[in-house]
Amino acid sequence: MLGRPMPKTFDKSFTQQEPLPDEAIRAAVQQLQSGRLHRYNTVDDELSEAALLEQEFATYMGQQYCLACASGGYALHIALLAAGLEEGQPVITNAFTLAPVPGAIYNAGGSLKLVEITAEYQVDLAHLKTLARESRGGFFLISHMRGHISDMEAIVEICGEHDLTLIEDCAHTMGARWNNRISGTFGKVACFSTQTYKHLNSGEGGLLTTDDPDIIARGILLSGSYMLYERHGTLPHNDIFDKIKLTTPNYSGRMDNLRAAILRPQLRRLDENCRRWNLLYERAEAALSKINRIALPERPPQEHHVGSSIQFRLDDGTPDEISRMITYCADKGVDIKWFGAGEPHGFTSSYDSWQYWQDLPDLPATRQVLATTLDLRLPLTFDVGDIDTIVEVIGEGIMQI
Ligand SMILES: *Cc1c(COP(=O)(O)O)cnc(C)c1O
Fold first, then answer.
1. What is the largest CA-CA distance in the chain?
2. Between 20 and 30 A from 251 (CA), which of 38, 68, 277, 348?
């Protein structure tokens, strides 16, 4: 060991977000002073902060309609129901996603079908075709997990051929693009999360976007609009509500004006923040690629992702080696998440931990990819120097095993 410099210790938190912009803090204080925190508590024909957020996010997405609601998982639940899911209908989703996705399918009464992923973390199109054939209709809830976007033209085509309604979970692709088209505009509906660890931060929150007037009307009513739906920011024709307002249940999951008020200024900074994430990602990707034994996914040229996290593999690593490497890094302050860990901890993403579903399938390809997949969050409180330190620690960790 003599002569080799002691590896550094990293002392920043991987879960520390930036403070909210001053403009958001001022908007929050103003909202608190008004006392009108409920989205339907408006004066005269004032548009509430929640309604304004809906207008602004719909514009950002280039979509007709937006619904602001309680969480990303809630948006997925409402999206499935609003898009017409009936009890027991098949809903295909990626085997690699976060727990709220299968949870939303369960909550909406769908029947879960898991599709394999590739080593590039994209949907395995051949397996998708097989499931689509078996499903004969139903839904494909694609989750752009960790910002990896699949071949969307191919997916739209498969869904069209097999009569699958496409819904996009864009929790990790807010601000990303595929072939210059913004992620969330390929399917019937798209869902976003504004939970603290995503691209906009209101603690909790969800956004749903669509161009379909029937879907938005059902979504608004389901989210708990009572008969105050006309106070929403983006509205279809009133006749649609007249037809369904008494036959649509209220699943109370609205967004409040306080959260909307702090989201609006953040939305104006979203594209700039996406660029900042990508600077961190590119630095991490370049440095990790120089370490022996580390494999990085190849990103397709059509994809303009948002690098708010990075995935890499220790492809020939045994579970014991990976586990020792993670412990080494943790001791040096570098938090690495391992999707192949035996027991799920923290945020669960391993499909075999969703055991409330009967007969979970075995998905050997996904299991194999996840077995050696490691994951780093890249919060904007890090700078490129931090990335260099983190990667240095990882390099040391791999040399130790
Ligand atoms: C966070 C997340 C969600 C849902 O978000 P919540 O707002 O926490 O309900 C959905 N899908 C993925 C992939 C996520 O990471």
1. 79
2. 348
Q: What does the alpha-carbon distance between residue 59 and residue 296 come to, in Å, rounded to a whole number?
A: 35
Task: Kindly give the distance from the C-alpha atom of residue 104 to the centroid of ligand 1, in angstroms, as a whole number.
Answer: 10
For tokens 């394999």, the residue is: 116
From 69, 78, 101, give the residue whose CB has the most ligand 1 atoms within 8 Å, as the site to mutate.
101
- How far apart are alpha carbons 294 and 314 in whole angstroms? 5
Q: What is the per-residue pLDDT across 185-220, written as a single tens digit (0 to 9) for each?
A: 999 999 999 999 999 999 999 999 999 999 999 999
Q: Which helix (DSSP H) or strand (DSSP E) does residue 178 occupy? A: strand 177-178
Atom of ligand 1 nearest to the CA of 143: 13
Q: Whose CA is nearest to atom 2 of ligand 1?
A: 171
CA angle 361, 364, 366 (to 5 degrees): 95
Report how far ligand 1's centroid is from the alpha carbon of 147 (Å): 12
Tokens of 75: 């948006």
| Single-letter amino acid code for the residue at 208 | L
pLDDT one-digit tens code per residue, 75-131: 999 999 999 999 999 999 999 999 999 999 999 999 999 999 999 999 999 999 999
Work out which ligand 1 atom sits closest to the CA atom of 193.
7
SS3 label, residue 72: helix
- Specify the length of the chain in residues: 401
Residue 24 vs residues 88, 171, 200, 267, 396: alpha-carbon distances, Å: 43, 21, 12, 10, 41
Q: Is pTM beyond 0.85 here?
A: yes
Cα 142 to ligand 1 centroid, rounded to whole Å: 13
C-alpha 234 – ligand 1 centre gap (Å): 24
Q: Which atom of ligand 1 is nearest to the CA of 194?
A: 7
What tokens were used for 183? 């992620």
What's the Cα-to-Cα distance from 336 to each of 154, 218, 308, 313, 322, rounded to whole Å? 33, 41, 14, 12, 10
Contact 79, 189 (CB under 8 A): yes
